[in-house]
Structure to design on (160 residues):
């Protein structure tokens, strides 16, 4: 992973590492309630992906998984400085995630494209983590408004 991030500043690397945490807060908190099940599922998902994701992303998810819980705790404190209402808070989170558009252009095309597809899938899984049958499969209208991560552009479409 160090190779992938060699052209990034420390701030950009931090954003890349914290992207799954920000997505978790954005999606899980969209209904004003970050459900503990959604947090647990996000942690499990990052752990799982370090073994099952495409090889180019496995080191990335290993790093994310190792730091996920502590980063989530830090971000919950940070996010508490934002408005408590998700309708006011989520645009702030979306602004942070929008910074990925510039970062992804600095990375290898294969990594950027796979990263983009992976975080889109990650958001979908977080949205499905509570509700529905046995806690899976239902996406609230509030989550649905954010789950497509429209603030992040497909790097494959940009680079072509």
């Amino acid at each position: 992973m160090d190779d992938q991030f060699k052209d990034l500043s420390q701030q950009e690397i931090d954003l890349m590492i914290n992207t799954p945490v920000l997505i978790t807060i954005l999606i899980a908190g969209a209904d004003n309630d970050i459900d503990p099940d959604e947090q647990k599922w996000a942690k499990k998902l990052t752990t799982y992906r370090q073994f099952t994701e495409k090889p180019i992303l496995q080191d990335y998810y290993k790093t994310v998984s190792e730091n996920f819980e502590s980063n989530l705790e830090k971000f919950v404190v940070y996010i508490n400085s934002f408005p408590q209402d998700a309708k006011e808070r989520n645009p702030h989170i979306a602004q942070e995630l929008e910074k990925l558009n510039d970062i992804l252009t600095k990375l290898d095309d294969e990594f950027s494209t796979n990263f983009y597809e992976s975080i889109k899938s990650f958001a979908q899984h977080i949205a499905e983590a509570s509700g529905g049958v046995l806690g899976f499969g239902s996406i609230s209208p509030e989550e649905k408004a954010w789950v497509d991560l429209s603030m992040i552009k497909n790097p494959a479409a940009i680079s072509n």
About this structure: Residues 55-79 form the longest helix (25 residues). The chain has one domain: 10-79+86-154.
